[in-house]
Amino acid sequence: MDGNSKTEAQATDMLTGAEIVLRALADQGVDTIFGYPGGAVLPIYDAIYAQQQVRHILVRHEQGAGHMAEGYARSTGKCGVALATSGPGATNMVTPITDALMDSIPMVVITGQVPTHLIGTDAFQEADTVGITRACTKHNYLVRDVNDLARVIHEAFYIATTGRPGPVVIDVPKNVQFAKGKYVGPKAIEHRTYHPRTEPQDRRIEEAVALMAGAQRPIIYSGGGVINSGPAASEALRALAKATGWPVTSTLMGLGAFPASDKQWLGMVGMHGSFESNNAMHDCDVMLCVGARFDDRVTGRLDAFSPGSKKIHIDIDPSSINKNVRVDVPIVADCGKALSALLKTWKKQAGKTPDLKPWMAQIDQWRARKGFAYPNSKTLIKPQYAIERLYELTKDKDVYITTEVGQHQMWAAQFFHFDQPNRWMTSGGLGTMGYGLPAAIGVQAAHPNALVIDIAGDASVQMTMQEMSCAIQHDLPVKIFILNNEWMGMVRQWQQLLHGERYSHSYSDALPDFVKMAEAFGCHGIRCDDPAKLDDAILEMINTPKPVLFDCRVEKAENCFPMIPSGAAHNEMILGKITGDEIGEAGKMLV
Amino acid sequence: MSRAPRTRLTPKNGREDPASAYDMTPSNELIERRTLACIVDNEPGVLARVVGLFAARGYNIESLTVAEIDRNAHQSRITIVTSGTNHVLEQIEQQLLRLVPVAKVIDVTNSTGGIERELALVKVAGTGEKRVESLRISEIFRAHVIDTTNESFIFELTGASQKIDQFVELMRPLGLVEVSRTGVLSIQRGKEKAG
C-alpha cells in the first residue's frame, strides 16, 4: 500500500510542462483564459483539451486575447490570462501588453517559443519575445528548465497582481512544454528583490492631515489606482470624502470609484473633463491626489498646473512621485490603506477646520456654466444625446461599459455616469483603438448575465471587429454601440482646430454596411439615424439576447467639448462653440 | 463626402509660450554627473533591463560596469555613471528600483564614503626621449608596465577617472596609441555590505 501511494504521489508530482501550466493556472484560481493556438503552444492546447477547470475562449487575433484578458481583469479585480503562440502570436500581443502596462492592469501572458536548441537560429515562427516585451512588461521570463516552470508561473501572478499591477510575460519553449518536471503549488512568495511597499508611513499621514486640516479650497483628485486597489479603497475614498466634505474629481481611469450621483462629485478632470473640476483643480489650495499620476492629459500646461496648491500624492509606485509634478507630501502606499489611515487620523484631530461653503459656492458657479451643454437637434442624433439616452435606459441594469478611443470615448466619459468601480473599461494611457470590443467580450466572459456595452466609433471598431465571431462562438452577448459619424472624429477635430481644416486621411471612406456585417457574423444588426426612434432602438439592443451591433448614425461634424487646448492651463478651457485662436504655434506640436 | 464645419483655431501671433499637454520647455536646471550602483539579482537579461530602461527613457550612460559579486546570493553589481538634472537623476533611481530584479540602488556620488575607481590600459609608442619621459610619468602615476617592445609600452593604471584622464592627456604628445578603460567601479567605505 505504502509503496503504491508513493509511486502514485511521484507520478502526480511529475507532470509535463504543458500540464504544469494548466495545473498552475487552476491553482491560481484562473477560470477563464483567452488564446489562440499555434505550433509552439500545441502541447499546452493538448493539456487544455484534457481538463475542465480552465475555460478557453478562442479569439480571432491575439490582440483580442490580450484586451479580453484586460477587460476580464478590470471588471473582476482578478488577474487576466492570455495565451499565444510564438513569433506572430507573441508580436500581436505586444499592443495589449503595452496597454496593460500603461493602465496598470494585472495580466499574465503565456507565449509559446521554439524549442530551446533552436532559439537564436531564426527558426520558423521564432521571435525574441522576452527581448521584444522587456520594455512593455512589468517583468518577463523565458523558462528554459521545466523544473522552474511552476515557480515562475506562481511568481508571475504574484508580480502581476501586487504593488503597481502590470503585465507579466512567460515565454515557454516547446520542448519545455513536453518535458516532465516537478510541480510545486503556490505558496507564500519570498521574492529575493521584489518587495512592494503597501503600508503608509505614519509621519506622512500626519503631515498630510495637518495640511488637509487647514484647507479652504480643497479637492480630491482620484485615479485608477483606487480601483486597482480594490473595492475597499473606493469605500475608503467615499468615507474620507464624506468625513471631510471635500469635492472629488477623477481621471478617466478612476471613474466609478466615487459615485457620479453624489453632490460632491465634480466630473472628470483633464483635457475633456468638466469645467468645474478643471477650474477647481486650478484654484484649489490643497490637492489630495490618490492613485493618479499627473498624466499630461490631466495636467495640461505643467507650469500653470494648480499653481497655488499644496499637493499630497498617494501612489504605490515611488517613481510616480515627483515624476511630472512636484508634491509636498508623498505617501508611498496602497491607496486603500493610505485613505483609511488618513480618515482615521482626520477623525482624531480635534481642531476646527475652515468653512468650505465659499469654496463650494464658487464650484457651484462653475457648475452653473454647464460645460457639457450642447445644442440638441430634432433631425440628427447628437452623439452626446445618444450616450445620454443609452445611460438613462441602462442605468438600472447590471451594466458594464467599455470604449474604443476617440471622441466617442470622451463623450462616454462625460455623459455615462458610474456609481460603482470596475464598471468602466477604457484604454487610457496607451489610447488603443480597437480595445473596446475585445475588452467587452472579456468582461462578458466574467459576468455572463450582465449587460456589457462597447461604446465604439466607426473607425476604432474596424480594428478588432473580427472578434464578433468570438462573441458568437462563445455565446457572449456583448452590445457594440457605434457612434458612427463617418470620421476618425478626434483626428478630424484636431485637424479642424490645428491643421487648417486639411482633413488628411481622417474620413472613414468605404465604410462597411455595419448591419449587414453584423448579420454576416451572426450578430443582430440595428441602424438608427432618427432621434425620435433612438429609445426604441436602444431597447431593442438591450433586449436582444445575443451579440448586437448598433450603427448609431450621429451628427458628423460634432466636436468634443469642453476642452483644454494644447498650451493652455486648466482655467483656460474652451466651452462649446469656439471662435478664438486658443492654440499657440508651439501648442500644435503637443497634441 | 461631407465637410466638417468651418470653425477653426488659428495660431495667435503674440503667443509663444510652449508647454502644455506635452511639456516641451527645455530645462534650465543644472546638469550633474552621478554614479549609481545597482545591486541586482544575477538573472538572464538583467543587464538588458537596466540598459533598456536608460535607452527607453532617454537617460545618459557615461560608463557602465557589471560583474557578479556574490555567486551564492546570485548578486551582481552594476555601476553606472550618468548625468542629468537633479529631477531626472531622482527619477533614474526610482525607475531602476521598479525593475523586479533590482534589489538596491546606491547613490555613490552623494553617499558618505562612496569610492570610485577605474582601471585603464594605455598603449604608448615612441623612441628616444619621448619613450623615457612616458616611463617617468608612469612612475609618478604609479602605473605598471605590463607589456613592452623596443618601441612601445602598455601601462596599467588604476585610480579615479580624472586621474586616468590626466594620464592619457600627458601621454598624448608622447606617442599615445590607444586606451582601454573598464569604466567606473564603486564600493562604500566602512564595514557594511551594500547588498
Your description of this structure?
- The complex is a heterodimer of chains A (591) and B (195).
- The N and C termini of chain A lie far apart (73 Å).
- Chain A has 591 residues and is of the alpha/beta class.
- In chain A, helix 24 (534-543) links the parallel strand 19 (524-528) and strand 20.
- In chain A, helix 17 crosses helix 24 (534-543).
- Chain A is built from 25 helices and 20 strands.
- Chain A has 3 domains: 2-182, 3-Layer(aba) Sandwich (Rossmann fold), CATH 3.40.50.970; 202-368, TPP-binding domain (Rossmann fold), CATH 3.40.50.1220; 383-560, 3-Layer(aba) Sandwich (Rossmann fold), CATH 3.40.50.
- Chain A is 39% helix and 16% strand.
- In chain B, a hairpin with a 4-residue loop joins strand 2 (63-70) and strand 3 (75-84).
- Helix content of chain B is 25%, strand content 36%.
- By secondary structure, chain B is α+β, with helices and mostly antiparallel strands.
- Chain B is elongated, with a radius of gyration of 24 Å.
- Chain B has 2 domains: 32-107, ACT domain (Alpha-Beta Plaits); 114-187, 2-Layer Sandwich (Alpha-Beta Plaits).
- In chain B, strands 5, 6, 7, 8 and 9 form a 5-stranded antiparallel beta sheet that branches. A 4-stranded antiparallel beta sheet of chain B has the order 2-3-1-4, with helices on one face.
- Chains A and B meet through helix 22 and helix 25 of A and helix 1 and helix 2 of B.
